[in-house]
Amino acid sequence: MDQDYPAKDSCNRLLDEVEQLIWSLLDDRITDADAERLEALIKSDQQVQQRYLECVQLHTDLFSQLGSIPETNPEELSAKKPRSPVLGSLGDLTPGIENGPPVAD
Prior knowledge:
By secondary structure, the chain is mainly α. It has five helices and no strands.
């Protein structure tokens, strides 16, 4: 039996949790507590940072391909700012995302 199995399983569970948090963020339905959890995980783990960037890129690609970005008032967009420097700075690194993904207030 693989001795690394518990570590791999733990890592997979963490990345599954992170992905759920990321999609909640991208779907604009993340809670404050979950946003804080996601921020802490992003700060502490390079794999989490990579998963965040992959999900944001997929989200951006899907909107680009489907052409279904909802009409939004420009004032609403400028009013929506990332709640944390981590989420904002990672969003700035992601092609096609201006100032990171919107975060629920």
